[in-house]
Amino acid sequence: MARIVQLLDGIATAQFEIDKPAVRIGRSPESDVYIDDASVSTAHCIIETVAPESEEGTTAYYIRDLGSTNGTYVNIDRVERQRLVHEDVIRVGLKNFKFIDENSAEYVKTAKIKKSWIPGVYFTK
Fold it and tell me: pTM, whole model, 2 decimals?
């Protein structure tokens, strides 16, 4: 399952599941992800889910700009249509979202915290 997480100063403030073939993002109250911001177009962009062609394949997610005034950005590039990969940062108007794809995420092993001989000083290995 994939989702986008709205970020404010690097802190997650809301999350939206991508649980249907097309998730609409815009300033229209009918949008799946409603953004009340004048820099966002009424119908700004859409995230499309493309089913795998075979059972071994993975679901692909694409973001497509819908002719918005201020554009849709993935990481730092303005895009018309682009495939999303895990941890891409999407900018719509002045709002930032992180794309999370749990199926393709490679999790880093949890670091073990060790106490040093110096009081109050800890480190990881």
Answer: 0.78
